[in-house]
Backbone:
């Protein structure tokens, strides 16, 4: 007999599929079928797919194929997140131009995808480093600029010395570069382009509540990242401001606890606060001390230990007046106050804030209690942090008020007196998108001396795309590489026609990935980023699948970009994706795979040894898709043997005829329909494909168990063949090559992926007998078997009569008999 040989089957089908691109192509958007947009995050073209990719795409491909078989019009596209630093590093190392390196990587990874049998609609392919894509980055950037959503400002930026470029806040992980674990990120002052994501902060936050199809952990991470905080800004006048300081006379603090203002015993300024600077200008010693505080803060920021920073401060010798009681409090500068949060100044309330308490204790500042659980209790240990159900004490006319109400009333008092206002502060900062790199989208702006050198002038739309020059020497010098290409830099001013210079920074590559999935719907459009009608048909994405490492960066930028495009009138959806699934990591021997650990598993090697089907199926079988998966080659071999069994049985029985109906018919059909129900169910929810595949294994065992009966003609050929037929349909999402092959073996017409998914027949699936565990006081006593049509009363009676159960309850009183239908009986006895 023939043996299962993936090395023959797989290339044969791969060649057929590659020759017929329509097979996996989405229908036009006027198709009568319900649409389904199944999307996996696009890879960076590093040169080779790794095993984590295989898992991600095996999940998406299984889902896409299932939805095809369920009669949907499926969009399942793929593309390349093709700009970015590695191409420049490769250019430095091997002297290949970034474009060439990238495109050749794309070519080889596309082959890998095909070898894996991924059913992508390649007619929709998007490659972000090509001008037909990035020109729309530029176009959208211009639209944002027109609306004040793209702007330039000088600011402190995160700088990775290794990347020699700026990083967005989101790209700094525990004070280190997201690409360079070992490199501490520095702070630098640079003029940069920003996108005003903060304008959408509230909508990005409230929108999360509606994203019920997203994992709660991702929503929580985004909520914390946005970090909305309601509070009050309160002005404190400086009592003895230096005469020379124009802005040295007022300090606005941001507080979430204005109800504690009578307990403010000092003002603390961030080292970079303007008032601190004004004071320092008068006092060189103070200036030096403040500089030291700033350095400590930057160090802590770099290593992300800001929360735990050892607190230091210096008194400025000046005082501010509390607007609520006229009290004078000393003004200090402290290293734990951030310049870029709130107003960069706080009122310090040591009795009711932990950090202030620590600071005041260290420097012997007064600690004044103004909040208590009630008016009679004022001896609780400090700091006392409660606000709900607590009241104000020693707070003048506000004493006795409940904290939460006092917050409202006192904020209103501040507003009435015009010495501050209610306010909302966000942790979210505008998105810095300038990169001093070559391999990215050129920012479509120019600067003209004649028109005002500091005013960026947008390039007219008609001049797009601003092409990235291809011939460029990549060097290790700092600064933007494009600045060293005179043909690129020198241009004419769109305003006055005189000589002008182009912007030489390029865009953060997260711009590219913020909207690529819209372009998939209409990738060859050369008059617009896409046809809105097409996007409106396909969006929102029905299911987005990717790694949880993108929970903040990519997924928040994509949501922002969606809202901007909606406000530009290009689309109508508020959110890009209805549902999000984040798969677990693939690990090896309990550790993350990495070159340095030498535990990287190559997908190609797995395919060579066991075939693509077994590799993919193992990636789905070895763990629930949302958990980490410990890759074990022996497991892949096991799946390959399992597929071999299916191959053998199908080949053996494909031509089966005749046979007498016997008990095995019902048994086989029962198992078959139970399996269909289980696998279908697993596709609708959390995709526990591991359990789907286990149940398919049980079905295959059932066939094997009946093999002798089939051989002896005691089962009808119809039963055997319909079982095999549905079996092949059920493995099709997981092992598409073998499914296609065996579909042909069975003599079925057409392509298995376009035949309707089998339906489970509940009557055929029903067991004759049910097995019910019986517990006594929660402990298993026995498992009883009953006819499946037994009533609840019959089950309870049978449980009490069972010998083992009876022995357990002998001499005791039965308090309660609980029956969970079909599941279990629990007897409560005393
Ligand atoms: C007085 C006070 C009393 C405060 C009290 C808290 C408790 P969230 O919730 O994170 O927004 N704060 C304000 N700006 C700061 C800055 N730039 N650097 C460091 N700390 C700052 O925290 C808001 C609280 O953090 C503010 O309310 C302020 O301290 C502090 F019993 O004001 B609070
Ligand atoms: Zn870096
Ligand atoms: Zn000009």
Residues:
């Amino acid at each position: 007999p023939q043996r299962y040989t993936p090395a023959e089957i797989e290339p044969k089908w791969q060649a057929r599929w590659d020759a017929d691109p329509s097979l996996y192509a989405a229908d036009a958007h006027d198709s009568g079928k319900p649409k389904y947009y199944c999307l996996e995050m696009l890879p960076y073209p590093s040169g080779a797919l790794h095993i984590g990719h295989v898992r991600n795409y095996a999940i998406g491909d299984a889902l896409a194929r299932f939805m095809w078989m369920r009669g949907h019009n499926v969009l399942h596209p793929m593309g390349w997140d093709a700009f970015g630093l590695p191409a420049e590093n490769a250019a430095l190392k091997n002297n290949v131009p970034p474009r060439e390196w990238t495109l050749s990587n794309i070519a080889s990874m596309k082959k890998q995808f095909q070898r894996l049998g991924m059913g992508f609609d390649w007619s929709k392919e998007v490659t972000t480093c090509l001008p037909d894509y990035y020109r729309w980055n530029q176009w959208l950037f211009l639209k944002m600029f027109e609306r004040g959503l793209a702007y330039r400002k000088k600011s402190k930026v995160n700088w990775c010395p290794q990347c020699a470029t700026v990083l967005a806040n989101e790209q700094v992980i525990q004070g280190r570069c997201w690409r360079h674990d070992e490199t501490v990120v520095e702070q630098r002052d640079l003029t940069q382009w920003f996108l005003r994501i903060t304008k959408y902060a509230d909508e990005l936050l409230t929108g999360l509540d509606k994203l019920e199809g997203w994992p709660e952990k991702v929503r929580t991470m985004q909520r914390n990242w946005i970090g909305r905080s309601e509070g009050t800004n309160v002005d404190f006048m400086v009592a003895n401001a230096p005469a020379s300081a124009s802005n040295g006379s007022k300090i606005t603090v941001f507080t979430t606890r204005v109800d504690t203002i009578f307990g403010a015993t000092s003002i603390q300024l961030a080292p970079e606060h303007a008032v601190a600077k004004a004071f320092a200008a008068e006092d060189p010693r103070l200036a030096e001390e403040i500089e030291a505080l700033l350095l400590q803060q930057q160090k802590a920021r770099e290593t992300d230990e800001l929360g735990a920073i050892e607190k230091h401060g210096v008194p400025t010798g000046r005082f501010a007046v509390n607007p609520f009681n006229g009290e004078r409090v000393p003004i200090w500068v402290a290293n734990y106050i951030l310049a870029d949060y709130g107003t960069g100044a706080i009122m310090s309330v040591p009795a009711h804030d932990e950090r202030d308490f620590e600071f005041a204790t260290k420097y012997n500042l007064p600690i004044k209690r103004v909040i208590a659980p009630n008016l009679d209790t004022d001896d609780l240990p400090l700091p006392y942090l409660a606000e709900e159900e607590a009241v104000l004490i020693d707070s003048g006319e506000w004493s006795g008020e409940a904290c939460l109400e006092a917050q409202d009333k006192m904020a209103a008092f501040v507003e009435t007196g015009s010495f501050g206002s209610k306010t909302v502060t966000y942790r979210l900062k505008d998105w810095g998108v300038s990169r001093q790199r070559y391999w990215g989208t050129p920012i479509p702006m120019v600067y003209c001396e004649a028109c005002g050198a500091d005013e960026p002038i947008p390039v007219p739309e008609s001049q797009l795309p601003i092409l990235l020059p291809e011939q460029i020497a990549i060097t290790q010098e700092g600064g933007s590489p494009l600045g060293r290409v005179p043909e690129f830099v020198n241009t004419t001013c769109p305003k006055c026609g005189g000589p002008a210079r182009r912007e030489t920074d390029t865009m953060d590559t997260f711009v590219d990935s913020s909207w690529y999935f819209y372009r998939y719907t209409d990738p060859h459009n050369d008059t617009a980023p896409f046809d809105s009608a097409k996007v409106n048909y396909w969006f929102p994405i029905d299911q987005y699948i990717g790694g949880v490492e993108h929970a903040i960066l990519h997924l928040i930028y994509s949501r922002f970009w969606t809202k901007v495009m909606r406000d530009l009138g290009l689309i109508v959806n508020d959110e890009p994706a209805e549902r999000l699934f984040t798969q677990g990591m693939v690990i090896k021997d309990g550790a993350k795979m990495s070159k340095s650990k030498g535990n990287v598993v190559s997908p190609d090697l797995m395919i060579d040894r066991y075939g693509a089907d077994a590799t993919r199926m193992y990636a789905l079988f070895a763990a629930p898709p949302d958990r980490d998966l410990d890759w074990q080659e022996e497991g892949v071999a096991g799946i390959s043997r399992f597929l071999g069994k299916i191959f053998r049985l199908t080949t053996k029985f494909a031509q089966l005829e005749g046979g007498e109906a016997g008990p095995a018919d019902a048994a086989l059909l029962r198992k078959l329909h139970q399996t269909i129900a289980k696998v279908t169910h697993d596709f609708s929810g959390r995709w526990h494909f591991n359990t789907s595949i286990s149940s398919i294994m049980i079905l295959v065992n059932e066939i094997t168990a009946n093999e002798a009966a089939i051989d002896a003609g005691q089962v009808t050929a119809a039963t055997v063949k319909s079982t095999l037929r549905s079996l092949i349909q059920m493995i099709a999402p997981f092992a598409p090559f073998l499914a296609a092959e065996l579909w042909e073996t069975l003599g079925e017409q057409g392509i298995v992926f376009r035949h309707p998914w089998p339906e489970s027949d509940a009557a055929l699936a029903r067991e004759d007998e049910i097995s019910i565990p019986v517990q006594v006081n929660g402990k298993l006593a026995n498992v009883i078997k009953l006819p499946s049509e037994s009533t609840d009363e019959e089950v309870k009676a049978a449980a009490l009569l069972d010998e083992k159960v009876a022995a357990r309850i002998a001499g005791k009183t039965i308090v309660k008999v609980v029956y969970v239908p079909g599941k279990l009986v629990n007897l409560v006895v005393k």
Notes: The mean pLDDT is 93. DSSP finds 27 helices and 34 strands in the chain.
